[in-house]
Amino acid sequence: MMATLIFLALVLLGLFLALRPLWGPKEPFPEPPRREELLKELEVLREEVKNLEGEEKKLALARVVELERALEGWRPPEPRPFNPLPVALALGVVVLLGVGLWRYTLPRLPGETTVTQRAEARELKTLQDKAKRSGAVADLLAWGRKAYELKAFDQAAEAYLEVLKKDPRNVEAVRRVGILLFMSGRTEEAETFLQVAQHADPKAAEGWLFLGNIYFQKGQAQEAIAAWERYLEAGGEARERVEGLIAMAKAQAQGGRDGQTVYQARCAVCHGAEAQGAIGPKLKGNPILKTPEAVKEIVLKGRGQMPAVSLGEEELKALLDYLSRL
Question: Which of 58, 64, 117, 193 has the most Cβ atoms closer than 10 angstroms to its Cβ?
Answer without folding.
Answer: 193
